[in-house]
Amino acid sequence: MKKERIYKRKATALAYDHIGAPRVVAKGDGLLAKRIIETAEVHGIPVQKNEILVEALMQVELSKEIPPELYQTVAEVLAFIYRLDKMKSKL
């Protein structure tokens, strides 16, 4: 009998349209987290592992903006993504 591997990871996804603060547009654990990560990878969206940030973002309601106490950390993630995009565009 083949056993399924238990997927314990949690994942969140943010959207930022340059108006207001970033919003939580997806979140979940287990297989839903796996699907969030796979969907991001398929669409070329950078994935960053930050368990502490994910735990904080899991507390935010879907479609709601992140709270001010997460601005700095999320800004650092966005800056990282922008740098990656710039590097990719130069290739």
Spell out the blueprint of helices and strands.
Blueprint: E1 10-15, E2 23-29, H1 31-42, H2 51-58, H3 71-90
Antiparallel strand pairs: 1-2
Note down, in words, how this protein is organized.
The chain is 44% helix and 14% strand. The chain is of the alpha+beta class. The model has no long low-confidence stretch (mean pLDDT 89). The protein has one domain: 3-Layer(aba) Sandwich (name from scop), CATH 3.40.1690. It starts with 9 loop residues before the first strand and ends with a helix.
CATH superfamily: secretion proteins EscU
Strand order of the largest sheet: 1-2
Number of strands: 2
What is the name of the CATH class?
Alpha Beta
Q: Please write the string of helix (H) and strand (E) elements.
A: EEHHH
Structural class estimated from helices and strands: alpha+beta
- Tell me the helix content: 40-55%
CATH fold annotation: name from scop
Number of domains: 1
- What is the distance, rounded to the nearest whole angstrom, between the alpha carbons of the first and last residues? 47 Å
